[in-house]
Structures are given as C-alpha cells and as structure tokens.
Amino acid sequence: MITRKQKEESVKMIKDKLGSSDFAVFLNFHGLSVAKASLLRRALRKAEGSYFVAKKTLLGVAAKETGLEIDKAKLEGEIGVATGGKNEDSVLAVAREIANFAKKNKDILKIIGGIWNKAWVDAAEVKKLAAIPSREVLLTQLAFMLSQPVASLARVLNKVGEQKGQN
C-alpha cells in the first residue's frame, strides 16, 4: 500500500510529464518484461521521449489537474505512458518507435490511444502518425516530384531534336 505522500509525488511526476509534452500514448503492457521495457525506454530516449508506468486513478487525477480529457473506460489493463514531442519531428519519432515496438511485441504491448495537442486520439491515429515519413524523406520526395516535369520536358525536347536531326 502506498502512502498519500507517495501518491502525491506520483501525481506530480505524471503532471510534469504530461504537461511538458505535446504527445502521450497510453499502452497496455500486460506481460512486458523488465528487459523489454528497458529496450522500449532506450528507443524512446533516442526519439526524445520517455516511458513510465502509472496507476489509472493517479493518471486520471494528474490529467484532470493538467486540463486533459482521458476516457478512463478505454484504459484497460496495466497502463504504461510514452510521452514526447517538443516538436513535430519528435512526435513522429516517438509514434514510430512505439508502433515498431508494438508490432514486434503484439502479444505483450497494445496501443490504446493517446493525447496529441491536448486532444484524445485513438490507436488508429497513433499508427497513422507513425506511418508518416520523416521530414528528410518528405523533402526528398518533394524534390523528386518537382524535378519530374522539368526532366520530362527535357526528354521531349531531346526527342524532338533527334527527329529534326534525322530529317
């Protein structure tokens, strides 16, 4: 049994984590070993995120105090929280790490949903965020798409020049 003081410290820690990040994902981690939890923490740390376990009641209190709406009915089983997201790139990186880890550990880790910009998002939205490529990949794709009309025009002009040269 934890004391009231320990509960207050836990609520304060949860409030700090939720309040300092734009993105939080709630995970059901039934059966997650300490070793795998350490792997998840390490992966999230690289993505500028963090992972902690919280009691649902304390999580509800902390969320209420920070002005976040969490549907406690959706929070089933043991709840772990992955937070992160000081900017869009780190939000996507955290979502990607969680989705990859959940995909590798389907029977252990389940994405329940999350909070992004103080609004509830379901598990499907978290997975959609994880599927968005990084900024560098998107810029490369954009540069390729923008260069294609010019390349096509150059090919057409080259063919016209070859045909005129043959006549």
Can you tell me about this structure?
The chain is of the alpha+beta class and 167 residues long. The chain folds into 2 domains: 4-132, Ribosomal protein L10, N-terminal RNA-binding domain (Alpha-Beta Plaits, 2-Layer Sandwich); 134-167. The protein is built from 6 helices and 5 strands, in the order αβαβαβαββαα. Strand 4 (110-116) and strand 5 form a beta hairpin. Helix 1 packs across helix 3 (56-66). The chain is elongated. The N and C termini lie far apart (94 Å).
* Unreliable residue runs: none
Count of individual helical segments: 6
Order of helices and strands: HEHEHEHEEHH
Radius of gyration: 23 Å
CATH class of the largest domain: Alpha Beta
Sum up the overall morphology in one term. elongated
Within CATH, the superfamily of the largest domain carries the name Ribosomal protein L10, N-terminal RNA-binding domain
Helix content: 55-70%
CATH architecture of the largest domain, please?
2-Layer Sandwich
| Average pLDDT metric | 87
Q: Which structural category fits the helices and strands?
A: alpha+beta
Looking at how many chains there are and whether they match, the oligomeric state comes to: single chain
Number of strands: 5
- Main sheet specs: 5 strands, antiparallel
CATH-defined fold name of the largest domain: Alpha-Beta Plaits
The separation of the N and C termini measures: 94 Å
Task: Bin the strand percentage.
Answer: 15-25%
Instruction: Provide the number of structural domains.
Output: 2
What spatial order of strands do you see in the largest sheet? 2-3-1-4-5
